[in-house]
Amino acid sequence: MRRQFLVAVGLCGLLAGGCAGRVEGSGTVARDAAGPSGAAATSSPPANRSDRPGTAGRTTLRCSGTVISPAGAPYCFTLPTGFQDTSASASLGTSSGRGDKFRSAAALGPRDLIIVTVYEVATDTDGIADDTLEGELKTVLGRLAQQGLTFESTSAQRSTVDGARSFGYHARHAKDGFESDIVFLVRGRNEIQVICQWTEKAAEVRKGCRAVLGSLQFKTVR
């Protein structure tokens, strides 16, 4: 069975990484809403960052355990306990304008899963301030909201993953009955998205999501 994930978009505008494709349904962005209790912050590391450009990052990958890392990919992570590597059967319900370069998936079931996707962006992001990047992401969220997803806040949970800047959000898709924690990571000329989706196994998926973010290594590409 192919596992379809309904959110995948690259940064657009400033980064020229592509914009959202088609998503079924309709939704809203709660622009004045506070971040939901246990939403994106539940899956992403809690530390906040100031408005400063990114760090140089790593040049090699050294993940351990059962490692997921497509050939030639600038990332690796450890398969979470209880999950299966379903990278070969994962498909995306939307696409960015330029398409993803690499994609990996770990699943508990057809609609309880984690997908890691890499997009190439046109600009080296390391010199771009956090506020500017988050502004670009708000444009992406607005497009997705028009096409089915409801974001409870457009203010990102800012943090770092392996030294790369991260911006986390929580979303619901009423028509298809799933929720997602979506974390955008940027370093150099790459954007990584970690999308953690569930319909029934919220606690297990979020635990797996924290494990992926905790083990993820992200190599700098310029």
In short:
The chain has 222 residues and is α+β, with helices and mostly antiparallel strands.
What this model shows, in words?
The chain is an alpha+beta fold and 222 residues long. It has one domain (3-218): Protein Transport Mog1p, Chain A (3-Layer(aba) Sandwich), CATH 3.40.1000. Helices cover 15% and strands 31% of the residues. It has 3 helices and 13 strands; from the N terminus they run βαββββββαβββββαβ. The chain has helices at 40-43, 130-145, 202-215; strands at residues 3-5, 67-68, 75-78, 84-85, 90-92, 102-109, 112-120, 150-151, 157-161, 164-173, 178-187, 190-198, 217-218. The strands form 3 sheets. Strands 4, 6, 7, 8, 9, 10, 11 and 12 form an 8-stranded antiparallel beta sheet that branches. A 3-stranded antiparallel beta sheet has the order 2-3-13. The protein has a two-stranded parallel ribbon with strand order 1-5. Strand 9 (157-161) and strand 10 form a beta hairpin. The longest helix is centred in the middle third of the chain and has 16 residues, at 130-145. It starts with a strand and ends with a strand.
